[in-house]
Design brief:
It comes from Pseudarthrobacter siccitolerans. By secondary structure, the protein is mainly alpha-helical. Helix content is 76%, strand content 0%.
Amino acid sequence: MFRWVGNRDQLLTDILTSLASSTFRDIQEAVDEVGAERIVRAAELYAEILISSEYYRTFLNRDPERALRLISTKVSPLQRQIVTFFEQILNEEEAADRFTHSLPTPDLAYVIVRVMESFLYSDLIIGEQPDAGKVRSAVSAVLGCLQD
């Protein structure tokens, strides 16, 4: 098996990146907002999907250290894939003159992803329940479109 897929981390990373690709396609189809609200809604929906995904939560809880390393560090291409997804949305909204920002787009996408991860993995990091609503509020704040 290792000849085909490499080590366990490589197999898990391949599975996670494949699942992320289909999740991103689903988000692109589901989100019809524009401008900053499109970015906020994409982040919120991504969080909702991962929080409600039983297989994903099981993976995180079985081996939290490995899961966080594979998901949220430079060790895995998954982090880069997630950041790239948000870079794409930012670029599309900026090109359509529906959103402007002062940070370089890769940096803003990275900040959005890190903010999302803070609330997606809060159970593992600080012992609080993951919360897509907090993702929405925090990403809105980052983008300067605070909502009540």
